[in-house]
Amino acid sequence: MEDRIYYREFECYHSPPKGKKMKDIGHLYYDLALLPSQKMREEYRAFLMECGRKSGIRTMDHNKSNYHHLCQFIKTLRNPPESFREWEEDVWIKHLKKWMLKNGIPSYMERVSVYGTVSQGETRLIGYFRRFLRFLQPEDVREEKEKDIWELDKLDIPVKGNPIHYMKTINFTGIHQHQLREEIKAALYHHIPYETIGTVQGEISKMRRFSNYLKEQYPAVESCRDIDRELIEDYLIYNMTNGQTNKSKADNIYKLRSVLTTIGKLYGYPHLESIIIQSD
After folding, report:
1. Which of 28, 59, 180, 226 has the smallest set of CB atoms within 10 Å of its CB?
2. Is the CB of residue 32 less than 8 Å from the CB of residue 6?
3. Alpha-carbon span 1 to 80, nearest angstrom
4. Helix (H) or strand (E) holding 203
5. Does the CA dihedral 174-175-181-185 come out positive or negative?
6. Which residues contact 83 (CB under 8 A, 6 or more apart)?
């Protein structure tokens, strides 16, 4: 099998954007020979052909730079596996972030939502690699609310969407602690029928921030059950000194309180319902 995939082989190449003139780029290609093993090339070929069915040719061309970065990263590994499936996603991402840091490539970027809230998220390179790694995994047959990424149209509850800024998914993968992630998922499942999706997304952003703090400062905490007032007071000090606007600081605590209160009621952790007081 040839190690090159030419753009003209992608299904999207034969359906160019309507009303836009494009120069012929069918001769351009992805070079699979940049990957170290035949199995990796086969896995990436399958991913690219699937993307070529679902994405536009401009996206395919843009993502080639991400592919080249990944190939450069894999080349630096001392003993790379034969297949991408041999390592867990977290292991791959950990190695990639180390490589990015060493090469001066940021692994996080600041994002401003359509509602004006500011959050920190992973860069496009990491997101692209995650999509590839998840493409290789078997189909997830679990109930939608048990997954770490929810497709909103598959939930069995009403969703208050925004007709202008339509959101398709809710992503919980940024919550590092497994039990904490499950607790947050349960709380937000109860919030969705009563809050707009923009509000729910804001809550996830604040809980992701809280999860990052726990990972760095309280690594032994895996569940909301383990959160006490002393921990919250430490987090309040951190929140007040991190350089955000006063509005963002207040919103961080308001949404954290909302989610923790719901978790307390659902899981029988009564101390959570009053762990953040009104004056905080």
Report:
1. 59
2. no
3. 22
4. helix 197-217
5. negative
6. 37, 39, 40, 43
User: Which residue's structure tokens are 């843009």?
Assistant: 62
Q: Which two tokens stand for residue 109?
A: 């970027």
Q: How many helices (H) and strands (E) does the chain have?
A: 9, 6
Query: What digits encode the pLDDT tens for the residues 3-27?
Result: 999 999 999 988 876 655 566 788 8
> CA–CA separation, 220 vs 226, rounded Å?
9
Dihedral sign of CA atoms 52, 57, 59, 62 in order = positive
Task: Measure the CA–CA gap between 56 and 64, rounded to whole angstroms.
Answer: 13
DSSP state of 160: B
Q: Nearest CA to 77 among 51, 44, 102? A: 102
The separation between CA 217 and the C-alpha centre of its own chain, rounded to angstroms, equals: 22
Rounded mean pLDDT, 219-238 = 95
- Nearest alpha-carbon partner for 217 in 229, 233, 235, 193: 235
**Distance from C-alpha of 99 to C-alpha of 94, rounded to nearest angstrom:** 9
Q: What does the pLDDT read at residue 233? A: 95
Alpha carbon distance 227, 273 (integer Å): 12
Q: Measured between alpha carbons, how far is 89 from 201 in angstroms, rounded to an integer? A: 24
Q: Is the dihedral of CA 196, 117, 175, 86 positive or negative?
A: positive
The pair of three-digit structure tokens given for residue 95, joined into one six-digit string? 């190695």
Model confidence at 142: pLDDT above 60:
yes
Q: Which residue has the tokens 């020979």?
A: 33
Nearest to 192 by CA among 147, 165, 157: 157
Q: Which residue has the tokens 């002393």?
A: 230
Identity of the amino acid at 153: D
DSSP one-letter code for 273: G
